[in-house]
Amino acid sequence: MINLELYKVFYTVARTGSLTKAADELFISQPAVSQAIKSLETQLGMTLFNRGHRGMELTAQGGELIIDDIEKALRLLSGIEDKVSKLRHSAQGTLRIGASETIFQYCIADHLMDYHKLYPDVKFELISDVSPKIVEYLKADRCDVGFLNLPLEADDSVVISDTVMLLNDVFIAGEPFRELQGKKISVWDLRKYPLLLMQPNTVFRTSFNQYTNNLGIQLEPAIEVDSWGFMKKLVAEGMGIGCIPREYAQNKMASGVIFELDVEPLLPTRSVGIALPKNASVSYALRAFVNLFKRKKYF
Fold this sequence. Notes:
Blueprint: H1 4-16, H2 19-26, H3 30-44, E1 49-52, E2 55-58, H4 63-89, E3 94-99, H5 101-118, E4 123-128, H6 131-139, E5 145-150, E6 158-173, E7 184-186, E8 195-198, H7 203-215, E9 223-225, H8 228-236, E10 241-245, H9 246-254, E11 259-260, E12 262-264, E13 269-277, H10 284-291
Parallel strand pairs: 3-4, 3-5, 7-12, 8-9, 8-10
Antiparallel strand pairs: 1-2, 5-13, 6-10, 6-11, 6-13
Helix pairs in contact: 1-2, 1-3, 1-4, 2-3
């Protein structure tokens, strides 16, 4: 096995021509330098230095044969170390960010712009998919950080480090249901109206089904949609009563086109969390990005 430290000692002795000077430069003792040279000579099976009154001189059939290659190798390693150090202490490279289209729009977009102002050299690769898929991308090293709709089934390969946004699911309606505005409504009353829900196999739908199961009620959707934007459009057109995180509908509600229903009992609060691959190396660029979402700095 190659011991790089032995070659560093060899090169330092060759450059300084002195065991003492090499020891001072490497911050080790002179006997340690001498022992390293002996170990390398034994390992290579050749004498590397002539020890004379003028100091340490490379042997013609030993040290001189390898000094140029050793110098090139050490310079290459030094360049790699410098590059890694820059990556660890400066923001550069590409960040691969995974999230759903809605999370990108409502949770990440403003932070992306803020980050770009701070670190313009960093490029972004945005990977849009549902949360379970983002977990798989994290595990397969296809993205560096994921923003997930929670709760999700636990996965030992992924660490969810923080909650960055709370989601409060509410029922919304449009003009044809205006008589319901401001009235307290039982969730059982919703059985009389057409219901719009996000499609199955989503985190929202799993949470919604748990909500209705706990109440012992069946609420069958009249329409299933694949995006919150489409749901808001259909609700505004009077197609039925929808269920959506309030945080995703506030702009539309502020315009008066749709309104929130006062339904009891309330749906459970959900959240968006940051996920990182377990035991993954966190670059400076990634650490700086994640910390934009945190009041407390964890890295």
